Amino acid sequence: MKKLTLALVAGAIALMPTITKAQSFEQGASQISVGYGVVNVTQAYVADYGSLLGTNQKFSSLGPIFLKYEYGVTEKVGFGLNIAYVSASNSYDDTFFNETYSLDWWGASFNARVNRHFGSSDKFDPYIGFGMGYKIANWTYSDGTSSEAFIPLGFEATFGARYMFTPNIGVFSEVGLAKGVLQGGLNIKI
């Protein structure tokens, strides 16, 4: 009888995380997100580089890729860090001057961020976020010249939401001013 009681108590304890209703965003909990974005204005500029003047255009890009961390300071406010990286390169042949021109660009940002959460669901977590920090950008042209970001100040303002499939695993999506106008990816609550 003691073994049966012990087994029932152990089973009940093991099931408690699935029975209890945890909020998708909680004070004292951390969230880690990894994502990918689309619609970067500078990538679009690099993609268009030389399109009117040349032939044999070769464009490639990566990102924006996002890595985010957030800690719940209160039940509705979280502080964190967003790291983002994006790159693009393009080359074309200028038949008039018989030259090949290229442009390579990459950018990264490291922004401290605050999110204000509006939901109270155990699955859905809408929020608005603002971030500010340091950004790096580098342009390299085919003649060997390069330049860096004129103002090394990063900024972002987004509206987003998380949807948790389990108490600890979900997805996120954001839209707004960031390295990508639209971004989304995987979210883990720890």
Helix content bin: 10-25%
Mean pLDDT: 85
User: Can you count the helices?
Assistant: 2
Distance between the termini: 37 Å
Structural class: mainly beta
Task: Tell me the β content.
Answer: over 45%
Radius of gyration: 23 Å
Task: Assign an overall shape.
Answer: elongated
Largest sheet: 8 strands, antiparallel, barrel
- Weakly predicted, low-confidence segments: 4-21
For the biggest β-sheet, the strand order reads: 1-2-3-4-5-7-8-9
User: How do the SSEs run, as a string of H and E?
Assistant: HEHEEEEEEEE
Give me the count of strands.
Answer: 9
Structure notes:
With 190 residues, the protein is mainly β. The chain is 14% helix and 60% strand. The protein is built from two helices and nine strands. It has helices at 2-19, 41-48, and strands at residues 30-38, 55-72, 77-94, 99-117, 124-141, 146-148, 153-164, 169-177, 182-189. Strand 7 (153-164) and strand 8 form a beta hairpin.
